[in-house]
Design a protein that fits this description.
4 helices, mainly alpha, binds zinc ion
């Protein structure tokens, strides 16, 4: 376990051994760590907490896009939201994945077993 927690989060590695990958493809999560066999989903509805992380990650990105779009033209606030939403779509896989990885690490840090 010579990898720092922050590096493990960035690389999507297991919170216990920090070697096994949490995701096997872009969207497919492993059920458990391939190295230490730690289950990544503890119970039904486990990733509900990841929604808070997702919100925390998405809001700054979305607000930055709104500010950027607002420099294009002097549109009303309602019109700015739509192009900002379209521009946000490519960020969804990244924030979704990262939110789950951060949630697993957060949960295992405060309740390891
Ligand atoms: Zn592991």
């Amino acid at each position: 376990m010579n990898v720092k927690r922050s590096t493990a989060i960035l690389l999507g590695l297991c919170p216990r051994c920090r070697q096994g990958k949490i995701y096997r493809t872009l969207f497919k999560m492993n059920e458990q760590c391939e190295i230490c066999h730690l289950p990544f989903r503890r119970e039904q509805g486990y990733f509900l907490g990841a929604l808070y992380v997702y919100y925390g990650l998405s809001l700054p990105i979305f607000l930055s896009l709104v500010l950027w779009v607002s420099t294009w033209k002097s549109w009303s606030e309602y019109l700015i939201v739509f192009p900002a939403l379209l521009l946000y779509v490519p960020f969804i896989p990244f924030t979704y994945r990262t939110a789950r990885i951060i949630w697993i690490h957060f949960d295992r840090f405060f309740d390891p077993e």
